[in-house]
Amino acid sequence: MAPHPQRLTVTRRAWPLARPLMTADGVKTTVDVAVVELSDGDSRGRSEAVPLRRYGESIDSVVAALEAMKGAVFSGLDRDTLQHAMLPGAARNAIDCAFWDINAKRAYCSVAELAGLGAGPPLFTALTVAFDTPDKMAEMAATNRARPLFKLELGGDGDMERVRAVRQAAPAARIIVDANESWNEAQLRAYMPILIDLRVELIEQPLPAGGDDALARLERNIPFCADESCRTVADLDRLDGKYQAINIKLDKVGGLTEAFALAAEAKRRDLRIMAGGVISTSLGVAPALLVAQHADIVDLDGPLRLAIDRGAGLRYEGGMIHPADPKLWGGPD
Predict the structure, then answer these.
(1) pLDDT tens column, 99-148
(2) CA angle, residues 278, 248, 127, in degrees to nearest 5
(3) What gap in Å lies between CA 266 and CA 37, rounded to an integer?
(4) Is 2 among the domain residues?
(5) How many CA atoms lie less than 13 Å away from 312 in the CB half-sphere?
(6) Would the CA dihedral through 322, 325, 328, 332 be positive or negative?
(7) Model confidence over 190-229: pLDDT tens digits?
């Protein structure tokens, strides 16, 4: 229990995107985030969450879920009891990461030290090439051809043309693709020789989460990575024989606490780990950098897709992300 009653403050804000984003609902020009602050009068912790539409979340539902926790927080909710008080998702992620932040400040140490990790080094991150026409995706790849790793967002007719266009625009780059549950088994079988020829290294969530048993029948010429098929530790058993990697996103799993547990168990099962994220400010990415220390692939370029970021934001240089400024998140006051 906190040394003094804790107060939970919830705010919401829309951050403008650098470029409009094509989605199933149309074109997005902003991203909505919910910001949590925990305060006990002496210390303050904060974090940020982004609603995931795939799991039925909206900014209204996430803010409502956070507001509903104010009484429990004031009555002594802590990070351990939070795991059972809320379901996985963006709202729990916000409170969980805020607890990590305030607990580190109370202990006069960093969250990395609190979690038993060393100071994180700079990390290479993939550059996301958003779903668009092949020409537009190739244009972005050509502009950034010096970057070592691209992640292509797919999910529609012409996907192989998109991959081929990016490969031609950036012949030396490593490429991974995210099908976003959009293919069926026949398409995947037809696409596989093309993807091998184009030197794709990983295929993320090729089939819908509820219909991915076919992956166990396919040759694994390219590893498959579970995203929507793996939310928490409880999902790992059903991945056997189908996936060789998992994507850990804090807003999906419900916070840093579950992410650490999921990463540890995935490693025990010899699954590769991708530290993933969504479009957010640096406050949303900073906790994920701790998960990224365990990861084989890092995909945390969300702030680069914003028109502006928070002050003391993460420093990106080329393909590298530098550790978070303690003023942003995760360090002592």
Answers:
(1) 999 999 999 999 999 999 988 899 999 999 999 999 999 999 999 989 99
(2) 45
(3) 31
(4) no
(5) 11
(6) positive
(7) 999 999 999 999 999 999 999 999 999 998 899 999 999 9
- Residue finishing a domain among 61, 78, 108: 108
Residue 327 lies in a domain: no
- Structure-block tokens of residue 83: 């795991």
**Cα separation of 323 and 123, whole Å?**
8
Do residues 130 and 73 both lie within one domain? no
Q: What pTM value is reported for the model?
A: 0.94
273/133 same-domain check: yes
Structure-token pair, residue 57: 């979340």
End-of-domain residue from the set 108, 137, 155: 108
Sign of CA dihedral 80, 271, 211, 164: positive
In the beta sheet, which residues pair with residue 175?
Answer: 150, 200
Q: Say if 226 falls within a structural domain.
A: yes
> Got the DSSP string for 174-236?
EEEEE-TT---HHHHHHHHHHHHHTTEEEEE--S-GGG-GGGGGS--SS-EEESTT-SSGGGG
Residues 240, 242: Cα–Cα separation, whole Å:
6
CB of 274 closer than 8 Å to CB of 245:
yes
Of 8, 128, 244, which is closest to residue 229 (Cα–Cα)? 244
Q: What one-character DSSP code corresponds to residue 120?
A: P
Please give the tally of structural domains in the chain: 2
Q: Mention every residue, 6+ apart, whose C-beta is less than 8 A from residue 217.
A: none
Cα–Cα distances (Å) from 181 to 69, 104, 119, 160, 211, in that order, read 33, 38, 36, 15, 9
- Return the CATH number at 30: 3.30.390.10
Assess if residue 328 is contained within a domain.
no
Radius of gyration of the chain (CA): 20
Q: Give me the domain span that covers residue 173.
A: 123-321
